[in-house]
Amino acid sequence: MKKGKPALVKRLASEASFEFDPFQVFEVRHRACSLLYVTVKCGRNISKGSSTKDLMDTPDPYVRLRLPNSPDGRRKTMHYDNEINPKWEESFRFYLDTDKNNTLYLDLMDANVISDEVIDTQEFKLNNLEPGRAEHITFKFKESSEVDVDLKLV
Ligand SMILES: [Ca+2]
């Protein structure tokens, strides 16, 4: 055996022992991760908030979901042209860190050729959800618009 080799092996072994960080293991074990399922079901009487605006361009609605603390936390449904009672029936799954305060933001959007417009935004505090139980919620936007959403935390 060559003379320098045992020293090198010993040095590598001591470096490896420094990689074990008990605080890191502690944190990983205590981080609670849940899955949030959001189903955007349908909308009723979608309006931009004024009949003049609606007459100039019938809403082409879609819903944008934003969950700031979640990876991949921005999603959206399809949009339907000139449809004030859209049936989306689209489901989305989000990873949720339940150690944090999580708020889901729902933007009711109007699709346009050049740039889409936010009609209105609502929010929902997810820490109020009971795990395993589906909640059926109707969100109201502006005067008349309603959107039915199912939320479930597992
Ligand atoms: Ca439009």
UniProtKB/TrEMBL annotation:
Query: Which Gene Ontology cellular component terms are annotated?
Result: endoplasmic reticulum
Q: What sequence ranges are listed for the domain C2? A: 17-139
Gene3D superfamilies hit by this protein: C2 domain
- A Pfam family this chain is assigned to: C2
Task: List the molecular function annotations (GO) for this entry.
Answer: lipid binding
Q: What is this protein called?
A: C2 domain-containing protein
The source organism is: Owenia fusiformis (Polychaete worm)
